[in-house]
Fold Cystathionine beta-lyase.
Amino acid sequence: MKDKDSLPQTAGINTRLTHIGNDPFDYHGFVNPPVVHASTVLFPNAATMEKRSQKYTYGTRGTPTTDALCDAIDALEGSAGTILVPSGLAAVTIPFLGFSAAGDHVLVVDSIYGPTRHFCDTMLKRLGVEVEYYDPAIGAGIEGLFRPNTKIVHTEAPGSNTFEMQDIPAISAVAHRHGAVVMMDNTWATPLYFRPLDHGVDISIHAATKYPSGHSDILLGTVSANAEHWERLKEANGALGICGAPDDAYQILRGLRSMGLRLERHYESALDIAEWLEGREGVARVLHPALPSFPSHNIWKRDFKGASGIFSFILAAESPQKFKARAHAFLDALRIFGLGYSWGGFESLALHANLNDRKIAKAPKEGPVIRLQVGLEDVADLKADIERGFAAANAV
């Protein structure tokens, strides 16, 4: 495919995923880029070394392998530039460090990824940054929370474990009127189903550990910025010296090739199971944005092109004293769903969501929240496994 420059503008998503990121003819026609391992890079002369006037200068500043993945992510995100970092959490923390300083105020959605809250409540506060959490349903009402020193609005849609949607365009418009940077953790949807920069977001964050990898064996994060904020993001990353490894970048680039097809299967299977659970006895509610019954379904329908394979349901329990016992009985009876953190891989996973850190978007009162990552297994087998869980929970 020699005419790769025109491909992203005209082709379908699976065609783009197959070809973006590198030109085989840059590498003698080999369809995958070489894995370039590097720390030291040599310069042809002292003047070039002094001015650093060549493309590659040191391993932390990129290699052809990491650049191939960054180029692919930029093509998907519509971004001016992308950095690679060793984990999804690092992809969140670096922009916080890069765009805030002592004395600043930042707004963070209350349905945030747990480790992000831990970072905000510990390290960020120790650095003199004031963190305020807000209701994920606030929309344009976030204007009332702004102060003269508000520098960042951090969003995540849908929210972790309970999947609240956010009105990203409305929030972004308010934030920009006040001169604040809008960041979004977009791991759930990936750029295939939602492109944050098209909706007013400045910094798009993604745990490539999840769907881009797809095989539960790589840790990597990507952070993509629009043109206005790219240079500052790049400078912050360079100052911190945090970078993704070329072997991991190669594996993520390979995972991207099949991500569209895998996401279709995750979407279809998870929605099938979510609809089935809605009508099942013993389920208080199903927390899936693609369900018409979900409170913020209209935002999902307006802004998103699809849904991924992770959602939650509330296991009905008559008293809080039985929440943990029923949840553990359900989980321990599962044979196909593994009990594990993370998601986005080929295998199905389940866990009992801990929502004790919520300040505004409190945990549901009807029962424990069970989060399901629906993998690539046959749906009939997954439903049978869930039935085993219900049988065990009902015995408690």
About this structure: The domain at 259-394 is CATH 3.90.1150.10 (Aspartate Aminotransferase, domain 1).
